[in-house]
């Protein structure tokens, strides 16, 4: 499964994609040069390729520092093999460099493909929203009856409610709550979500078509990326996922920002601090 890079808040997703492509092309040129070396000049050629690769890695890491996460830079550029190449003997360097060049090109290809696919997926202007668990539990209406146009001040614009998988995990836990209302709400929400995503979990599903009170409402599940380590506090994790979605959605965001929906005061503070537009709801009377 391709690993989607994590964009820094406020970066231009298209600019990051362009930068990754340019970095990939520079590395492919180094790889192709060393493959075409004649046996007579192989020693000098490998030494030159190593220096060129090291320069590439330094420049690539510098260019990407303000655009993607440090973990992604380590995965794509400054890998353990990069550091090993700094101290390995000559014969080991030749083998390691050949492997590293091939694997870095493949890794960059995967990263470019995943980011491009995500940009295409989130390219139509919509009102993007992420709601924390309190929204699903404390709303007076069931998930399919909520007036999203009113809650999100969306008018007749289409709405996409993105559901981080940790919210599903929390709702699963609340099915066993001692509070009968909480238990009932959790089960109802999960039943609706389970019905919508019964046959596919990687595509947005229509919760409600356009109607006389608002635009189309779709739901989309957002899974944890491979190797992702969740924050210790679930509320922090949900806000973190929302900031990642906001960066990736970019120009598709109607109004320029994702809307974070919650009934909880502390969670609304977390979301605002993270740069999200927050919709703080009042508890039903």
TrEMBL record:
Where, if anywhere, are coiled coils annotated? none
Q: Which GO terms describe its molecular function?
A: hydrolase activity; metal ion binding; nuclease activity
Q: Where is the PIN domain?
A: 130-281
Under Gene3D superfamilies, the record lists: 5'-nuclease
Task: Give the source's domain of life in one word.
Answer: Bacteria
Keyword list (alphabetical) reads: Hydrolase, Magnesium, Metal-binding, Nuclease
Please give the name of this protein. PIN domain-containing protein
Protein species of origin: Micromonospora aurantiaca (nom. illeg.)
């Amino acid at each position: 499964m391709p690993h989607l890079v994590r964009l820094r808040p406020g970066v231009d997703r298209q600019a990051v994609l362009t930068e990754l492509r340019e970095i990939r092309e520079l590395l492919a040129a180094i790889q192709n040069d060393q493959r075409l070396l004649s046996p007579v000049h192989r020693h000098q050629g490998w030494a030159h390729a190593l220096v060129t690769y090291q320069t590439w890695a330094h420049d690539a890491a510098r260019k990407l520092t303000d655009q993607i996460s440090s973990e992604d830079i380590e995965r794509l550029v400054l890998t353990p093999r990069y550091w090993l190449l700094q101290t390995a003997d000559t014969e080991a360097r030749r083998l390691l460099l050949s492997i590293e060049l091939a694997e870095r090109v493949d890794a960059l290809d995967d990263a470019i493909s995943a980011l491009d696919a995500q940009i295409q997926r989130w390219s139509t202007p919509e009102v993007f929203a992420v709601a924390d668990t309190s929204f699903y539990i404390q709303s007076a209406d069931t998930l399919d009856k909520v007036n999203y146009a009113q809650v999100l001040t969306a008018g007749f614009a289409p709405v996409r409610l993105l559901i981080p998988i940790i919210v599903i995990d929390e709702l699963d836990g609340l099915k066993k709550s001692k509070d009968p209302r909480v238990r009932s709400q959790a089960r109802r929400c999960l039943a609706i979500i389970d019905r919508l995503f019964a046959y596919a979990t990687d595509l947005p599903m229509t919760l409600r078509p356009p109607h006389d009170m608002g635009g189309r409402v779709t739901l989309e599940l957002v899974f944890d990326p491979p190797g992702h380590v969740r924050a210790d506090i679930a509320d922090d994790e949900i806000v973190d996922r929302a900031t990642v979605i906001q960066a990736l959605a970019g120009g598709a965001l109607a109004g320029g920002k994702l809307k974070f929906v919650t009934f909880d005061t502390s969670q609304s503070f977390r979301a605002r601090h993270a740069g999200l537009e927050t919709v703080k709801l009042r508890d039903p009377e």
